[in-house]
Design a protein that fits this description.
- By secondary structure, this protein is an alpha+beta fold.
- It has two domains: 64 residues, Arc Repressor Mutant, subunit A (Orthogonal Bundle), CATH 1.10.10; 156 residues, Chorismate lyase.
- The protein is built from seven helices and ten strands.
- The protein has a six-stranded antiparallel sheet with strand order 4-5-6-9-8-7.
- Strand 8 and strand 9 form a beta hairpin.
- The protein is elongated, with a radius of gyration of 21 Å.
- The model has no long low-confidence stretch (mean pLDDT 88).
């Protein structure tokens, strides 16, 4: 950071405060004059750093009141499957993950039905929290049919995501998505560092490779940090 242009240093300083939630949505940031004095730069340099964050949607200016942190949400396309690590990095942010569970389990009725296997069939299960700048943005619970991805359970999912591995092993041909807003169970809220009774966006996903049903997943997102989008061409 020391070798970066001065405005970039200010921008990274502001961005770190925002992403760490030290400055939450609605927080009034220091003025251009205060930043120029703090970093010993011209007001124009401070203005450039703020302007870029405004253009990127992280800050908003209110005439005569000041500049405030926006409630900017991470966004994923609903009709596509993208690697969450790639998404985070494409925004210029740091991606990381934490594997909570990685084991073989017996498929209970609901999972057996969604995965197209018999009740009590042994399947692979992973539970992983995905982070953007050390802030949790997704809890992924995934069940995989071992018949089509036998080495899934041996993978190191701190160096690659399940999506990344499965796309290489079982090329995607079809997806099924349903979305709902829920109040998550306490253990989900805890893993996502959410306040009790805060809403959660839940994406139910199933994926196929040719005619083979490969996996079913529950993807939980904090409602105040994430949104899904869809674009369809109408002729």
């Amino acid at each position: 950071m020391a070798s970066a242009p001065r405005y970039q240093q200010i921008k990274e300083y502001l961005d770190q405060k925002i992403q760490s939630r030290e400055w939450p949505p609605g927080y009034k940031i220091p003025t251009e004059i205060e930043l120029s004095e703090q970093f010993e730069v011209s007001r124009m340099t401070a203005n450039k750093a703020i302007k870029e964050l405004v253009n990127e949607g992280f800050l908003e200016r209110t005439p005569r009141l000041g500049t405030f942190v926006c409630n900017k949400k991470a966004e994923s396309p609903l009709m596509e499957i993208r690697n969450i690590a790639t998404e985070v990095k494409s925004r210029g942010h740091q991606y990381s993950s934490k594997v909570i569970t990685q084991q073989q389990v017996k498929a209970r009725d609901e999972i057996a039905l969604r995965l197209g296997v018999r009740h009590d069939t042994t399947v692979y299960f992973t539970q992983i929290v995905h982070y953007e700048n050390k802030v949790p943005i997704q809890l992924e619970e995934r069940w995989v049919n071992p018949h089509f991805a036998p080495d899934y359970i041996q993978q190191d999912f701190t160096t690659q995501t399940p999506n990344e591995y499965l796309m290489q092993t079982c090329p995607l041909s079809d997806i099924e998505h349903t979305v709902e807003a829920i109040l998550p169970p306490s253990h989900i809220s805890e893993l996502l560092e959410m306040a009790v009774e805060s809403p959660c966006l839940l994406l139910n996903r199933r994926t196929w490779s040719n005619t083979n049903l490969i996996s079913t997943a529950l993807l939980y997102h904090p409602g105040d940090k994430y949104k899904l989008s869809s674009r369809t061409r109408v002729i």
